[in-house]
Amino acid sequence: MNRLKDSTSPYLLQHADNPVDWHPWGEEAFAEARRRDVPLLVSVGYSACHWCHVMAHESFEDSETARLMNERFVNVKVDREERPDVDAVYMGATQAMTGQGGWPMTVFATPDGHPFYCGTYFPRHEFQRLLAAVDQAWTGNREGVLRQGSQVVSALTQGTTLPTGPLPGADALDRAMDNLRASFDAGHGGFGGAPKFPPSMVLEFLLRSGERGMSGKTLDAMSRGGIYDQLGGGFARYSVDARWVVPHFEKMLYDNALLMRVYTHWWKAGGGERARRIALETADWLLREMRTPEGGFASALDADSEGEEGRFYVWTPEQLREVLGEDDGAWAARVFEVTGTFEHGTSVLQLLEDPDDVARLDSVRARLLAARESRVRPGRDDKIVASWNGLAVAALAETGAVFDRPDLVEAATAAAGLLDRVHVRDGRLLRTSRDGRAGANAGVLEDYANVAEGLLALYGATGETRWFRLAGTLLDAVLDRFGDGTGGFYDTADDAERLFQRPQDPTDNATPSGQYAAAGALLSYAALTGSTRHREAAHSALGTVSVLAGGHARFAGWGLAVARAALDGPVEVAVVGAPADPRTRALHREAMLADVPGLVVALGTPGEGDGAAAVAGGPALLEGRGLVGGAPAAYVCRGFTCRMPVTTPEELRRELAGG
Questions:
Q1: Kind and range of the H or E element at 196?
Q2: Is residue 400 within 8 Å of residue 406, measured between CB atoms?
Q3: How far apart are the first and last CA of the chain?
Q4: What is the side-by-side strand order in the sheet with 251-252?
Q5: Which of 203, 223, 379, 561 has CA 20 to 30 A from 24's CA?
Q6: Which of helix, strand or coil describes residue 391?
Q7: Are 432 and 500 within 8 A, CB to CB?
Q8: What confidence tens digit (pLDDT) does each residue in 408-434 have?
Q9: Element (H, E) at 571
């Protein structure tokens, strides 16, 4: 029976025609396991996962393996991107049992969902032997298996809360900086060795702290390496080596949204033309390759095409000459380091040094990109994930405002509109949609936090109060539904599906942790509204940063960045004036250009007379801030205490610089 055919998950749809009798995650699968008195086999992955495809081809499409699975287990297929809560609890079990994790994740569990044996990828013959061994244990040593499952659950549910501390102060942030220096790769940028992931949240902290060495080295090295698509823009998920040369070729929406924003901030901090180019190329890639007809952004591009990882992206010297001719082909091979850096004599393109002939480089890139379009493209996971679209909204809104690209702000507005129209129901969020149809899965903490963050950034870029109000609704849900009673947050709401463990992880992974993302959005909202409730909640959520700062700063990057903004105020700028007035636009743009940690911007139209309340339904920061002598004005504030208003961009620049 094909139970996956109506899924909104492209990953589940990839498995819909397997000979395996898959169930989606849900009570039906648990009931069937109890009825048949067999274990659950829970297989967790995602559509862009290379080794998930390998295991699918080797085992799940194999009739004999499928027969063993169907006869002895109830088989459940889970998209980790749709159900991060399910992924989190079983990944915790997998790491506890094996000392490592990854995808595909393979979990054998009791009919109650208690895991008793876990692993990741298994080759077909090893997997078949494992199926037989687990079945034998279940039928021959049931008591031992149940005891194992109970012990695993007991161990995972005891003592899992990370100790907390006060709002981190300057000393804690200094300790974090020292900890980051200890693992910094001075030769190639980034932190630690291979594999090397883009440290987006850590870079945000470094930039907000005025640190230009580690941040600049890393940002420059990533943009020159193979992890960055030198032809089409956009970053791959990670580099398999320490030098950013060979990527794992899948491209994720969340990475590119985070990095677009970081490169924009690097430009504001003096990163120069390269920072601007990478930010805008990433934005253009996002609009060109990831936008869906409904106005949102797809989740990922696959690593594989035509069954080979990276085939779409790599080149040989012969292929370069075929497209460019002898002279330009040889020149491109030198410029892009086409020396056999990948498999079968192919290379991933790098740009380790900028050539003198910029026009020639632009021509070569354009011709190679056009030629690459004729290749078979990697698959695209076109489901909309609320959290990641929230990150994209924030990045596009800010990048568009900073670089005067209205099309990027318009794209952010369209994505926010999709989230509002399809994902928001009675003030609550649904995590995913596809083709304009919402999935059934409830939003988790990161969805609420990152969507709120994106909406507040969009409000700051446009002054449209609907986004500010919607952000407030979502953040109220965070405070009402996700709190853990000790100042932190659970990753699922109090009325979410009950798993064997309520997931809670304040540490960053490839994206900001839900807790630190919530702290950032709450802090920005408090800065706009003066809400003590939201500010205190933000400060409390940052308490774990104090614990992590000295020894594990890499896993608290976003929390450190938010803490830096909290220590700085954050700075609030209220811009008041008619939207069509060029003087208003000039003040607003100057505010958006400011290199200030966690800056919040409110934009409103004045009421009647100087000093009047600014706009109905807008943030309290605008109340009482009026025109000055009939001219648009900007107010620079901290904690709603404002300096004298200014009316020119030059004066605003001085105010923001502290002059």
A1: none
A2: yes
A3: 70
A4: 251-252, 300-301, 380-381
A5: 379
A6: helix
A7: no
A8: 999 999 999 999 999 999 999 999 999
A9: strand 571-576
Secondary structure of residue 376 in the 3-state scheme:
coil
- Ramachandran sector of residue 305 (left: φ over 0; alpha: ψ -120 to 50; beta: rest): beta
Cα 555 vs. chain centroid, distance in angstroms?
14
Read off the pTM: 0.94
E strand or H helix at 420: none
Instruction: List Cβ neighbours of 651 (8 Å cut-off, separation of 6 or more).
Output: none
The C-alpha angle 383, 522, 519, rounded to 5 degrees, equals 80
The percent of the chain in helix, strand and coil, each rounded to the nearest 5, is 50, 15, 35
Q: Does residue 609 carry a pLDDT above 50?
A: no
Over residues 388-412, the pLDDT tens digits come to: 999 999 999 999 999 999 999 999 9
Strand order of the β-sheet with 641-642 is 600-604, 571-576, 633-638, 641-642
What are residue 483's phi and psi, to 5 degrees? -65, 145
**Percent above pLDDT 70 for the chain:** 98
Q: What is the predicted pLDDT for the residue at 2? A: 73
In the three-class reduction of DSSP (H, G, I as helix; E, B as strand; rest coil), residue 116 is classed as strand
CA distance 506 to 490: 9
Burial 424-457 (b: 16+ CB within 10 A, else e): beeebbbbbbbeeebbebbbbbbbbbbbbbbbbb
Q: Is 109 helix (H, G, I), strand (E, B) or coil?
A: strand
pLDDT value for 395: 98
Residues 6+ apart with CB under 8 A from 405: 280, 283, 399
HEC-encoded secondary structure of 4-31: CCCCCCHHHHHCCCCCCCEEECCHHHHH
Is there a cis peptide before residue 512, judged by omega within 30 degrees of 0? no
Determine the Cα–Cα distance for residues 467 and 420; give it in Å rounded to an integer: 9
Sign of CA dihedral 524, 80, 159, 492: positive
Which amino acid is located at 195 in the chain? P
According to DSSP, residue 252 is labeled: E
